[in-house]
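Hello again, I could really use a second opinion on something today. I've been staring at a protein lately and its backbone has me curious. You're getting the sequence in one-letter code plus the fold written as C-alpha cells. I'd be grateful if you could look everything over and explain what you see. No rush at all, and the record is pasted right below:
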Amino acid sequence: AAGTHLHGDKKKDVPVFAAAAFRPLPNMSVELKTNLTVSYKEASALLDAYKEIRGMKDRTQRHPVKTFILSTLTNGLPLFNKMPEINKEIKMCLGYVLHKTIKEKDKGRKRDLAIEMAAAFTACQAVQQRVIYSMF
C-alpha cells in the first residue's frame, strides 16, 4: 500500500545486513559486546597458531588472509565503508567469534573454527560477511 515501507526502504534508514540477509542478531548488551572480543594481538596469535591458516592467501593469491582478518577486526569490511552501522556489527561479530574460538577448550574444534573463519577470507567480502554472521 502507498505510504508503507519495509525496513531500509527510506534513505534515512540504514539496513542492518544481518537482519536483511538472515535474521536479527541476538540482542546483546553493550557490556557483553565490549567484553566478548579479542585484541589485535590475541587474534594474531590465534591465526599464527595453525599452519593451514599461515598458508592461506586472499582470492588474488597475493596476500595472507591474516592481514584481512585483522583489518576487518579493526576497521570492518571495505565493502561496507559507507555503512558504518553494518561495519560496527561486523567488527563486533568477528571479535565475538574470535573470542569464543580462543576460549574453546576442545583443541580440534578450536582449530576447525579458526580454519573455517580464515577460509572465508580466501573469498570475496560478501562471503566473508556471511561466514562471520553464520559463525556468530
Q: What stands out?
A: Residues 37 and 96 are 5 Å apart (CA to CA). Helices lie at 17-21, 30-35, 40-48, 51-54, 65-75, 84-103, 107-120, 125-135. Residues 1-23 have pLDDT under 50 and may be disordered. The two ends are 36 Å apart (CA to CA).
